[in-house]
Write a sequence for this structure.
């Protein structure tokens, strides 16, 4: 403990590279502070000033992340955080999903008569937590980032506080989510105890140095951390919270959770996973163990998600189960990663494609949702193509993409992902995945049948489309088709990102 | 002077953690469940300080401060959510949470 008596001066200052590497975080954090001030100022109505500040913060962060792309990794805060291409890649996903969520929420909150400035603040806080999660190299920092992200989302889920479903979903999510965080943290404590380091690089060094001397404490700690992450990404058997939470949350928040939260959980999971030596340093016994468990989990996740989604009549709930199924595909990428030449790049490409198409689908749902999140059942969609030809078209693009039909992002990403799994010699896994996505075509295209081939039921009014939501939907359609036709750029970015870890 | 063996403290904290975890699974009152979450986090704190002493390393003790802070924020949010739920549900029992079932 002597090292504490001398203060290393380089830890107290920021070099200019470190400062510019921290700029995205400054943008988001500065925007939260300013937005809080704007929200409490009585003289002006809080809606537009807060939205302006929040969007400025998010867009400023996107611009500064874009400026950092391709630069050398910068270690921050004594190696507790790092700013590398991997961080930037994920930061862009989080920030863009934040912007889209804000766009989708403006009219939605007006409809719900719940236009409060806190909402946008919480989205921003959560985005900040996600960005920290993708950049942290320390299990404690990961935990703090995870909590920053989750606490904001717990509140967002319970945002419609006069609605019983929203309250129940929030409490359920809170209890299970913080339980899982505590499990993850206990795992971190055990890893710290058995390796003497809380940073994931230090843990990896320990594992590399003593591959044979891994104690039961280490194994238990690693399992607890993995269980914590599997919970956060909602893989079977830790998925039970997800459909309820997705259904109870306000629709734009559901979209944010399905994309940002899942991407953040995968970002940290992958970093810990790679760093604790999967495919690198662990003894083979643990490797096969981990492989088998992930394999089982992936198969069960895909089967469960797709089969239960078949029976759903509420679109939000259906997309929740389909999101579980997509977690399964992502786990396939995780299993294949160390053994294929593309590494984890297909997994990250899939995350981008998944984020784009899912965000788009949820923006469409937020436009169509009536008061108290009604009007999202299948029969409410009948004849949608006549009321809203453009929205129906956009929804069709997203559904085709989710089902994995060319020329959309979903197809390209799935193709690359399954191809890497074939390279990794996981033929059975690929067969199961392909069969599962064949199942999924049924429930995605059923929505299409309702939209285009059924007559409208009852008196359905045309819900007004705000210009913000329209921009968000159009951008997501463009991105879905663009990635679908030319996936190479995303794959290239993902490859560069994953090699920088 | 008698010193407490580290393994005693570690087993103690693992038992507290298990009590918290089991509590989340079996208790019906949400306030008790919140206490169980705190119990789990504090068991982790105890584990961290024990290892910190064992390894003669400061990082474990630093972590505890952060965990305490996060735990405080967590219980604030949790209690707020429980109050919001109580207003619409008039109950804090998990048995009443049944609107969102398949």
């Amino acid at each position: 403990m002597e090292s504490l008596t001398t203060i290393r001066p380089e830890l107290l200052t920021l070099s200019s590279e470190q400062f510019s590497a921290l700029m995205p975080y400054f943008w988001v954090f500065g925007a939260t502070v300013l937005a809080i001030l704007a929200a409490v100022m009585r003289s002006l109505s809080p809606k537009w000033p807060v939205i302006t500040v929040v969007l400025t913060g998010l867009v400023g962060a996107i611009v500064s992340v874009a400026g950092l792309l391709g630069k050398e990794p910068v270690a921050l805060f004594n190696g507790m955080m790092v700013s590398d291409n991997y961080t930037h890649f994920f930061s862009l996903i989080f920030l863009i999903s934040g912007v889209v969520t804000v766009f989708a929420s403006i009219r939605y909150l007006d409809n719900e008569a719940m236009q409060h400035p806190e909402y946008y603040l919480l989205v921003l806080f959560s985005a900040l937590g996600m960005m920290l999660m993708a950049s942290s190299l320390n299990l404690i920092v990961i935990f703090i980032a995870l909590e920053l992200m989750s606490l904001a989302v717990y509140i967002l889920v319970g945002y419609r506080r006069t609605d019983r479903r929203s309250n129940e979903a929030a409490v359920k999510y809170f209890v299970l989510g913080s339980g899982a965080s505590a499990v993850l943290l206990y795992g971190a404590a055990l890893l710290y105890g058995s390796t003497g380091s809380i940073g994931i690089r230090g843990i990896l060094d320990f594992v590399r140095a003593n591959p044979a001397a891994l104690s039961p404490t280490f194994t238990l700690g690693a399992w607890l951390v993995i269980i914590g992450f599997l919970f956060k990404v909602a893989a079977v058997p830790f998925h039970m919270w997800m459909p309820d939470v997705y259904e109870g949350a306000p629709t734009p928040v559901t979209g944010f959770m399905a994309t940002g939260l899942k991407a953040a959980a995968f970002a940290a999971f992958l970093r810990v996973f790679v760093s604790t030596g999967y495919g690198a340093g662990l003894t083979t016994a643990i490797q096969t163990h981990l492989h088998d468990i992930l394999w089982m989990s992936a198969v069960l996740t895909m089967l469960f998600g797709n089969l239960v989604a078949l029976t759903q009549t509420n679109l939000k709930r259906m997309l929740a189960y389909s999101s579980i199924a997509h977690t399964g595909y992502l786990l396939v990428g995780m299993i294949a990663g160390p053994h294929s030449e593309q590494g984890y790049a297909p997994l990250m490409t899939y995350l981008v494609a998944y984020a784009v198409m899912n965000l788009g689908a949820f923006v469409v749902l937020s436009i169509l949702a009536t008061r108290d999140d009604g009007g999202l059942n299948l029969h409410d969609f009948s004849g949608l193509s006549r009321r809203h030809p453009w929205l129906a078209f956009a929804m069709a693009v997203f559904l085709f993409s989710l089902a994995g039909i060319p020329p959309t992002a979903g197809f390209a990403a799935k193709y690359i992902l399954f191809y890497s799994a074939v390279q990794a010699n996981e033929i059975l896994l690929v067969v199961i995945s392909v069969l599962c996505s064949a199942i999924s075509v049924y429930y995605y295209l059923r929505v299409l049948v309702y939209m285009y081939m059924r007559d409208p039921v009852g008196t359905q009014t045309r819900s007004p489309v705000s210009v913000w939501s329209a921009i968000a939907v159009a951008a997501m359609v463009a991105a879905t088709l663009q990635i679908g036709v030319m996936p190479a750029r995303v794959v290239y970015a993902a490859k560069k990102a994953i090699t920088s870890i | 002077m008698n010193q407490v063996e580290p393994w005693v403290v570690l087993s103690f904290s693992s038992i507290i953690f298990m009590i918290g975890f089991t509590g989340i699974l079996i208790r019906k009152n949400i306030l008790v469940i919140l206490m169980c979450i705190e119990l789990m986090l504090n068991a982790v704190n105890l584990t961290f300080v024990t290892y910190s002493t064992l390894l003669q390393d400061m990082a474990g003790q630093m972590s505890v401060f952060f965990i305490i802070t996060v735990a405080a924020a967590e219980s604030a949010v949790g209690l707020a959510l429980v109050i919001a739920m109580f207003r619409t549900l008039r109950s804090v029992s998990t048995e009443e949470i049944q609107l969102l079932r398949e």
